[in-house]
């Protein structure tokens, strides 16, 4: 089973990916870990290097789930024919998820450092619907529309009590 999950920050991508990985024993790749220098979320790695890392990950594992907001990095998974899940629950759900997210030690040295950057993150999340480029709603919609493999758009907020339902959906889509 191969699954690529993308959408706005705070949309529930990581929650869904973690649940699918745990349920099915799949290897998981959070694209933040290849897009940024470790624990330096403001220091991007080169896009070619990140794409190479994503491609290597996809080729190295039979079953995987990749998640992130980076359209070009998600595109790197598409030659491997994953189920493509576009998570778009709306701005309010994304903002609420960002406000309640636990500390992400792979991105920030401390919970305090993460909390200091919360206001910036919330403003960035809200701009998803109007900005241009690889990290925008317009780019994500175009990526989703162009993909000819199995795909689903999830517009409901990913909640803990729905993970089993979403995991079942993923399994049904690829059978």
Structural class: alpha/beta
For the sheet with most strands, the description reads: 5 strands, parallel
Order of helices and strands: EHEHEEHEHEHHHHEH
Radius of gyration: 15 Å
Instruction: Give me the number of helical elements.
Output: 9
Mean pLDDT, rounded to whole units? 87
Shape: globular
Helix content: 40-55%
* Spans of at least 5 consecutive residues with low confidence: none
Oligomer: single chain
Order of strands across the main sheet: 2-5-1-6-7
Query: β content, as a range?
Result: 15-25%
How many extended strands? 7
- Terminal CA distance: 9 Å
List the SSEs and their pairings.
Blueprint: E1 2-7, H1 13-24, E2 27-30, H2 32-35, E3 36-37, E4 40-44, H3 47-60, E5 64-68, H4 71-75, E6 83-87, H5 91-100, H6 111-116, H7 118-126, H8 137-146, E7 151-154, H9 163-174
Parallel strand pairs: 1-5, 1-6, 2-5, 6-7
Antiparallel strand pairs: 3-4
For the structure shown, list the relevant keywords.
alpha/beta, five-stranded parallel β-sheet
